[in-house]
Structures
1.
Amino acid sequence: MFFSVSQQQTQVHGIVTDGTLPLPGVSISVKNQKKAVATDFDGKFTITVSSHDILIFTYIGFKTIEIPVAGRLVINVQMKEDATSLQEVKINAGYYSVKESERTGSIAKITSKDIETQPVTNVLATMQGRMAGVNITQNTGVPGGNFDIKIRGQNSIRVDGNAPLYLIDGVPYASETIGYNQTSTIYPSPTSPLNSINPDTIESIEILKDADATAIYGSRGANGVVLITTKKGKAGKTTFTVTASTGAGTVTKFMKLMNTEQYLAMRREAFKNDGIPYNSWDYDVNGTWDQNRYTDWQKELIGGTASITDLQAAISGGSEKTQFLISGNYHTQSSVFPGDFIYKKGGSQFNLNHRSEDNKFRVTFSAGYNSQNNDQPAFDFTYDARSLPPNAPALYDSNGELNWENGTWDNPLRNLNAEFESKTNDLIANSVLSYEISSGLLIKSNFGYTDLSTVETRTAPSSVYNPAYNISSANSSLYLNNTDRSSWIIEPQISWTKELGLGKLDLLAGSTFQNQTTTRLFQSGTGYSSNSLIYNLASAKYINVLLNDETIYKYQAFFGRINYSFDKRYIINLTGRRDGSSRFGPGNQFATFGAVGVAWLFSNENFLKNSSWISFGKLRSSYGTTGSDQIGDYQFLNTYTTTGINYGGNVGLEPTRLYNADFGWETNKKLEAALELGFFHDKIFTTASWYQNKSSNQLVGVPLPGTTGFTVIQSNLNAEVQNRGLELTLRTNNFSNANFSWTTSFNLTFAKNKLLSFPGLESSPYSQKYRLDKPLNIELVYEYKGVNSQTGLYEFEDINKDGKITFPEDRQKAVDLNPKYYGGLQNQLRYKNWNLDFLFQFVKQKNRINPMGFAGQMSNQPVSKTDRWQAVGDIPAYQLYTTGNNNESVTADYLYDRSDASITDASFIRLKNISLSYLLPMHSNVVQCKIMLQSQNLLTFTKYKDGDPEFTSSGFLPPLKVITAGVLLTF
């Protein structure tokens, strides 16, 4: 048998680079053959070919290259960036993926490249300022704290009914709180499970926003969908990566408070104004405390430096048919508070992908396990740090013990003895099996399982009191929360893709079977023989079961998609879902949701195909309905609970809820129109999206007559909430060559929220919270007129003209606290081995000033309150001082805190993230070493004077400014 030279198989190898650095993961295929390989981490490849074959090199973001083998044994390739090819990137839309250029829905995305530059531990923190239409705020700077997210505004009247649906590798992840308000007192709200998600394991995050993108999720898509895809193994040689970093965190901004001289002058003037002498308990001003002592309590109590360490390691690799990834991470963060408090978080991730020799059968398995151990004080020190008199005594006496200064003050460090501890373990596992029956016909099934358990404790020992009071451990208490949540999901699916002449048809059908079980046990114990036994509940004299329940949530659905594109110009996308939920009563358990999306790629029309300046143009629009069942379990049933009272040897029951058979789904109708334009080979790419969401059939408490024994009944109200807005994005490739590249990304969102209708609002429990044609996030306030130059007191508008300021008659002015607009500006620069990435976040908004009480009492005040009324004719910013003896002044201050004077401009521009890295030049290609410097919240520019402008709850620690340095080794 003889072979021609051209038919002989030889091995060809080479290196693929971008002109400076090797490119891992580049696909090298043989033209008109199924043979393909990928470059390893060093950009190297080896492939067996014939001398007449043609190699095709493809890589996202770079131009595709075809190179003939022509008998060569070594082929080194330099690829060039191509912004246009980004339109060919596949976007995860949940049950299906779609090319960026062909999507009909609104989907925002960030990748691991954006995430890895940020020294954060919460998945929501990674998205702040990076996505149009996605508004995220941080609630507290304490480790393990929560973030709030709103995707295109607030749809539900209920505050807890606006959470999006989270999916990790296709597995629903419940975001309902796992904390208890009696244990997680260190936070403004109970603990969220989202802290368990490790950002280091995430490959990409997609946010689905409009009806076209979310309707396929039916009742769970009303508030948007967050799709999290974890990292997967890649073909190539086995690669080890190790990342180690350390850093520090401090409070972003302190309030400007009075010093001792200003404070004592205020106090003395207050006594003079009230015409009373110093009392024996006025220790700050009557000479008991040192009149010359000054302590900056903000620096003392919340001005510490949190130490942060991170360690990550991963191993990945595999063949063309089987790939794997194993990773682990460990994170610690101490506290800015006094004391030895620490937050620990660690986890591991495993991924395995395999496909058969004929590429018909594929299996993917992913599992992630994360553990948190959080030790914090039971109470935030921020309030004490702002309110303590600056001449208050020293924290410790000469013996190093807590100083009680002869019982003249409550030492703030007494609360160090009261601790909050939580331990959370979280497992998420997922497997996808698929088989290609014939060309274009695929069957697939997704299997998922989650298991989360958390234990929270809060101690209230007798040691928080002055020992002189002789309060024993018989008064010590323990609060305990045990919450467990597990779920499973099975989603069989079938899809078919067929080329029909110039058209292409995609069909998808599937079903969902989901079950979630949550058990909660809240307990307290009081009365211990010793504080050493406080964590042993059995040692308590009195044990109370505050809550013990188990809820089961069952969900079933059928969904489908029909997508047809013609000549790569006209696209129509139909999605629908039939949902069933156990949260509703008989006859209302099922509902149908659907959407239609259309797109016109006008840049593919003949009149623009050869345009020298428009490289991409698309008009798209969508309309559809989604729903919400975020009301909790068993809300339609008449339920009972134990009274806890023993009567005649029996513990009775009492009703807690009335039955409502008509309890049904909330519905959200979404409409969107968008324009996408690319210029000069997409070096400039911009989008403009207009949307309108109308949420109706609101699930709220409808008032009942008191004679029923209940104040409200959970029901559907014919109230309607509208969210309308404009989202703008811009991406520019400013410069690109072998040594230097610079890209800019910009996003801007204008959003308006409005309550369109609410029958019976005036007689409802919401009558003093909402107003028709106003946003949901409003404050009803008094109208401030200024300081009366004669009396020195604050004055307010008497709306009903009855000669006095009363509630609710005169508290009727609505102030919008929603952001007027928000967005971000990101720049990414590369010069040889240097990379610089920075993001500015900006928000135009109003917020409350920090409430500090009336000036003149034994509590520190902002330095701005030195501009006060002193004599007839003065027109200052603030009223006269009082110790509290002037009732008119105290009342005026109370009204001031509830007036429009307490609302101020809280707009800000923040250097949200900056990352600088340098890839060390190495003599060996076996090892790569990158040095990194990263920072979060580094600079904040704002006119807001009461601390950090992002805060939503006063008295809690603001976000931290974090700076870290690290090294990444790859070998």
2.
Amino acid sequence: MKNEPPPAPAPEGDAEAELREIDRALARIDAERARLLARRSELVAQLWGRRSRASAASGGPGSTLPRPVDRREAGAPTVRNVLLTLGGILLAVAVIAFTVLSWGRMGIGGRAAVLGVLTVCALAVPVPLLRRRLGATAEVIACLGLLLLVLDAYALHRVALPGVDGTAYAAIVSAVLAVVWAGYSRLLSQLVSPPGAGNSSPASSGAVSVSTGGAPGGGVPGRALPDGGGRVPRLIPALAVLPAQLPLLLWSIAVEADAFGSGAALLATAALDAVIALRFAQPAIRRTAAVLGTLAGAAGLIPAVWMSVTAWDVAEAARGALLLCGAAVVLWSVAPRLPASGATATPPGTATDARPVTGTGPGAAPGTVPSSTPSRSPAPGTANATPGTAKGAGPVTGTASGPVAGRSPALVSLALRSHRGPRAILLSPAVPDAVAGLAVVTAAGGLLRVALPAGFAVAGYLLCAVLLPYAVSAVGHRAPERAVERGTAVAAGVVHALALLWVLPDTASALLGPLGWVDAVWEGAPRGARAAVAPGVLWSGGAVVPVVLAMLAVSVCAASRLRAGRPGTAADAGAATAPASVPGTATATWPGHGAASAGALVLAAAAAAVLPVTLDLLYPVAVLLLTAQAAVLLVAAGTSGPVVVSRTALACAVAVAGTAAAWSLAERPVTQGALAALVVAFTVAAVTSPADDRVRQPVTACAAVASAVGLVVALCAGAGFPAHHTAFAVLAAAAAVELLAARLRKRPVGLPLEVTGAVTGLLAVGLAIAGPAAVLAAVLALAGVVAAGCALRADRHRTAGYAATALFVLATWVRLGSAGVEAPEAYTLPVTVPALVVGLLRRRADATALSWVAYGPGLSVTLLPSLAAVWADSGWTRPLLLGLAALGLTLLGARARLQAPLLLGGGVLALVALHELAPYLVQMADALPRWVPPALAGLLLLGAGATYEQRLRDARRLRELLGRMR
């Protein structure tokens, strides 16, 4: 075996960089190994398929004798474990029943003597079993021995110490059992060790030995003691952790401790588990201690948090804070000893390869393992090993240096490998750091809650969360890859999110409540802003709402600026998930700077919008302040550098303006003044915006138009004009907007202004509906004139032309209906005939012109009003004449293959026929039995289903035929 001298240690300042390079290199090695294994499996499958086909073609044995199939669903180790577990459970039940219940006429003393003999036998039997490589059986017997020790203690209490308090006695017995079992495990490892083998105590320094198969050898270096499954028992030393959980908790129960005592006992137990998990190298001990410590710590934090959040005086809050700070200290002590994010530290004694490695090679250094496969490359994780460290497939241990130097003995030898997933997240140092940060925030916030005025507890907790990352950074904690900073940033972010959720309902009610005045226009508002937020609703928020929003805005803005302006590493750029990130851990080009600034702007705008309601200012003053805030936000949108900040300011301005406009509807003078101010603000913003801006100028221009239209409506209503008269003013505004849009059609603002003008025109029509029909007809005709003017533009010729035609036709129908005309044909036929002549001339001049453009308007002018008259007429003359005309149009359209005559004539003919048959259909429905309609419907469905394919082909042919028509 060739030994190489260790490489020179890296400088202290480059330790973290070297550790990251090792992690990246190991990740690449693992990815390449996975790729090669996958390719190997594919090649093996291909070769096996070729061999099988060749054997079948040659008539060899492979073609006649099938391979035996292993139909066993459970392996031998599984069956062994199940049998041993069931046997151990049955023996445990029998022993408990024997001790607690009865055994004939034998008293408790006799039972205690028998139990003592059984205990000695149970504790002595594992030694020969381990030497015979029956490790699983030895584990079961050892577990039974631990149970017998517990029963011995019970018998001793019943026989010799009946007057001693049971809880206190159980606490003492638990401590004694933990110590006794730890000593027994150590003695057992020494008894089964071969002569001359050293003892790998968890506290030993220097090189730490490695066992096979990923399991520790119970502290036995250089020799594996496999049981039937080839592994060393791991459960025996881990059982000592179980009774160690009970002494402090049982003692607190015995002395009737309060919540502080119980929490202190649980947290102290969790601290003891943390020490065990970091001190001992065996994975079973580490995992058991970690799980039990986590449970004990979580149970201990519950009374501590309860004491902190429910304390009424400083003394009670200080007691809860003491427990929380103690838990934070323990967590911060544990975090630096966990593996860095992206790599998992394999503790000493854990193999990274399934190939067994046993024995000690000649010339090897103490505590090292020789290679069983010299031809293979060095195993991952052998960097900075001591001389004599093996190279090969097995795990290699040694004295670690560089980034891991100075860690606990359990992490002295690191086998770093890439690891992702939930387990890596849970084992990350950021997790205990985050919990510790939350504990500190809860402790400090509980103290501030007692000192602050009522209702400001959330602000106190938020202040602690804001200062937490900076305080931790000032103290100087530095875990691998700044895990402490990330963990505390996560804790601060959680508190920030909870504070935002706390004030969100009150903020939403203050900003959205004014929308209720839409249904109570000009009914008058109370003097105070709190009572005027919504009709008949009193705002229930407090002064803490704007304070918390302002604190959140300041925290986010400060953290963003500090992170964007201080040097750092690229890996740290994504570390801060909280608003209050730690200074000194950022990059100069942090991509989240703009988003953080935008979030701070939203929070600041919300705080400013809620402030008038919080101060309960006069209603007109509150609306005026909101309008002024909208103007300030428009200025910010025009002067902000980053695009995301500018867009956010614009969105906030529109939202605040909408709230102000809705809130102003309570009183007429306030409505007119607020809308006039908004018109000026949005107009100035639109005029000063760049012409090529595709967002700011269109949004501000449309908002200015909406505010102007609202102002026109308010002025007309204030002057006493009815709604149908106001429609003419609104229509004039729509015409002005369309003219402006036509002038600015080459700019991005042109199309949004045109759409806004169209919506304004629809508003005018809606206002005119409530008035006389003659006024509605006039408004429709004027709207048609505006649309016809828009149709003069080449790019709007078709769309605006259709709209103008529809508006003119509607105006005509409304006017005829208002005049009481009973024979609309006298007015429609003089229009239809020239329209059809014009359409015919156009078709002759342009053969590609559609029939809907040439004949559709002329036919619709007569057919549709006549159809409406037919349904209102009880005679037979008009239906007959209209039906004949529709039939002729249908036949003409089918002959000439024109869509407009065919579809219009066919549709009118079908409706006329339905009108004539409707009375008979009603009589038939009354005369038929009730089961006939469902039966007919069923037969119709069956017929449709039976001929579905043919109907699809017919429909496809009809669609193609209509498509070929002009």
3.
Amino acid sequence: MRGLFITFIVFFVAAFTPLIAQEGMEGLRHGKLENGMTYYVKHSKAEPGRVSFYLVQNVGSILEEDHENGLAHFLEHMAFNGTTHFPEGVMPYLRGKGIFTFNARTGVNQTVYNIEDVPTVNRGLVDTCMFIVKDWCSEILLKDKDIDDERGVIIEEWRSHYNVGRRLQEGSAPVVYNHTKYARRNVIGSVELLKSFPYDVLREFYHKWYRPDLQCVIVVGDVDEVEYEKQVRELFGQIPARENPRERYEVEIPDRADMDYMLILDEENPSKMISYHQRVHRVTDLDEVGRKSYSFKARIFNALWGQRLSRIVNANREKFLSASAEFGTFVRNYNGFSIDVVPYKNQDAEAFEQVWSVWEEICRFGFTDSEVERVQESIFQELQKMESAVEKESNPYYVNVFQANFLSGTPFHDQKEELDLLKEALLEITTEDMNAWVRSWASDTSRVVVVSGNDKDYKYLTKEQVLDIMAKVGEKDLTPEVVEHEIPAGFDLGLQAGTIKKVKKLDRFKAEEWTLSNGARVFYKYVEEGHGFFSMACSSHGGRSVVATEDLPTLTAMQALTMKSGLYKYDLNTLKELVQGKQVRLNMMIGDYTEGFGGSTKVDNAELLFQLFYLMFEQPRFEKQAFDKYVERARYMYENRRQTPQDLVQDSIRKLTVREDERNRDLGGAYFDKMNFERLEPLYRERFSNAKEFVFCIVGDIGRDEAVRLTSEYIGALPSRKGKVEKYIIRNYDVDVDTLAREFKVQMPGDKGMVNIALENDAKFSDKEQLALNIWGQMLRNRFFSIVREQEGATYGVNVDVNSMTFPYRKATLMIGFDTQRDKVESMKEIIFSELEKSKNEFFVESELTPILISIKRGQAQADENIGVDYWMSVLNNYAEYGTDITDHKIFNKTIESITVEDIRNVARKFLKNVKLRDWVIKSEEVNPLSDWEN
């Protein structure tokens, strides 16, 4: 829940507050069948010509008994293997029809299946997808062989997720969940049980819990809701109701009077952390506006916590490496509050005490009117920005509110009415409400502290020390934080404006190119879909490639510190006051070959954004105190970094594959010694001092006359230098060796082999060949999925990625990666290389090509439907940089229609003819990271 929610959908589906609802949504038919099944059928024009299907089961891993641990997730996998009407598997059928957007997700309390973007023009396919959903409800075959084949796949999924994060999460679960069933349910189960559970145990779980009264079917798309409701009722009404069904129970987590504690250590843990958790019962007796108000209070609370921590950091007073606090969802029926503190080495007590003091101040004195009102204003502006979005339907919105209605019994609204209710709830919140809300749940019960680290000899905070710090802070003579919010005067720059010397009409884009008197080029396009907002960006050639070797460490500091001390005559806090509530976003970028700025804001604040752009060029601000703090912090993180065995392997691979010179040599701690404060501003000005080297793009709902005025006044006022325009310097550090292959053995938990194969070719590939390369990669991915995962059960998935670049130099790359057991590495690699060899000599079949072409065409069509500010910014940037028109689909459409399996074979032959091979294998030497470590 941290930070602002930018999109309409994400905002509406805030996890710990189900959406509220009412009957009467236009285009909706919903109800409950006699067998107990719930359904929703919604006509939506959000995605014309497409429909999506969902099956929501009020069933998750929490319903498993110990001998069933992991079977809810296993059952989800089996749904794609064989069903009554699809005995050979659902997955191959859907892929064969060009449907690739299907999936299922098993959670602790629910399981959701989906088949999306089905073309309604193919009525037979639509009806078949409905049958698939019906089969999932009650007709998954669960044959012995299919179960055995899937065991290996899920064990490989377990292996792929078995990392330090998961080990810490599962290790701390007993105290976090107060030793309840939640602590013993990790969704995927254990390898031992996955290998050995009897077939009938899975079948019994399916029969016990997959039943109509716990199921919900959702159909959303460009369909006739009356007709499809009839079809749903007829088809799903055939499923018999279950006699004497088991109760769908909820698991309660008892309150705990004393604070629980755990120290958990793992050698691969990258940092030490002190985590405080407080569990809170979810409030259920709220009315509609009250539920929304509760959600907003949590969001305001999180924002204000972040601001208080930021003020400590901005004042260079922090005693911690990082700290955060958040109130949000925990598990069904519970919310939770957490504080995470990463301390400097041997300063654990000081760091925790400082952050706990912030919490004590909030509990004791609450928030102030000005704090609350400013965050409310910011959220309200986000709601206003959503007003334009509610005019366009959103299928994810419908799916999420229907799911919440089914699982939580809460009503729903259409998007416009929902937005009105959100505004009402937000504006009713007072500072007294906020402080009372905090007091309503902040208590000394159900508290947990988990201390995690990586060094068993380190002196971590004990339970007694944590309690002593809490007591000490509770007795402190604290005073309320007083923050003065004085809005500074605006910028009075007194600039000498430039002029637009040349206007070039770009009719193909309905845009214009302006050349200014200082030589800067500006591309302008009005985009109504900006809905009161616009974006602005600029870039020039050069970047890191032209920076002197001795300045590279300072460049790193410069990138981190830009705007961290403010701009012009305003320090950072004053600058934040200036832009408070104005929805201004601004950033600086320096890449290997380019540098530039990007920003966006409301049209009402256009002048402010142009002023900031000007000041970014002309009035950067760097302070010695901030520089010294950054260097100290960066050095500390480097010297105290925790290098895992995998990190050391990656270092070895880098030494093998990267040609080293003075520009990219690892200097160790000496790198930070070379950061020079005196060079910060001069180096910055070298990159941003010549307007004629920059190309600007202005895109959005800003009128031409206003754009012309502001461009002339601010961009036109930027100085230019005489002489040649700076060019980047191509730097290629790839080693010129045809084959590099190594096997590394490292100490890491589990029986694990990790394979990464990269094939590189620097030949020239035409546009059609680049498309064929991409398709070849997708075909290989499907082949590997079928063989290595489905037939061999040796991996959860084989990643295949094809990349073809022409800048900064020409190179096409095919990357293949997967995890498996150590003793299966060689045999699976043989399969991979065998399939690559087949690509040169055998044709793929049309049935492999056609679904991929359908998917590509559908993706292009969807992209064309989502044209807005970001799209046109990309179009103009591409045209300005390369002179290409990415809106012209004629060549692409012609190429996609002409691609054949012979084209795929030919491009595979060409790619593999003079290829460079990089073949890396990492195998574990098994250790138990928690033995002798966990207390």
